[in-house]
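Incident review: delayed structure delivery

Summary: a single-chain prediction request sat in the queue longer than the usual turnaround. Root cause was a stuck worker, restarted by the on-call engineer. No data loss occurred. The affected request and its eventual output are reproduced below so the record is complete for anyone auditing the incident later.

Affected input:
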Amino acid sequence: MLTFDNKMWLSVDVRHQAIPGTPIHMSDLLRGTLDMLVLRTLASGSMHGWRICERLRDTTDGVFDIGQGSVYPALQRLKLRGLVKAAWQTSELGRRARYYELTGAGRRALDDEIARWRRSVGAVEKVLEPVPEGE
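Output delivered after worker restart:
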């Protein structure tokens, strides 16, 4: 299980685009993970931070158990970049909660980050392939 807390959080630098052939720096790859996951989670609809945490945990079968202390700063970063917007609403439990949803820029950034992520995963897979004997 991977957990993220206030001391270690990962974020997407969504200002960079996935440009074919452009090297990806390791710090960008690691920083990119949490914000990309949050953006992808919000692509299915508006939700509050606690629900985002729950959805990420459930979707990944508990592999990503990301706490609110990491998700809320990610949401603020995304909001400041204009990738999500927020509004106060009443939650399913009758409590007042801030609901977040993607903006048009957030959808475009998500598409860029998914392309970059897939390119990165493909590169890692190449490194993990068995090395032929004699090399």
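Verification: The chain has one domain: 28-128.
Action items: add queue-age alerting; document worker restart procedure.
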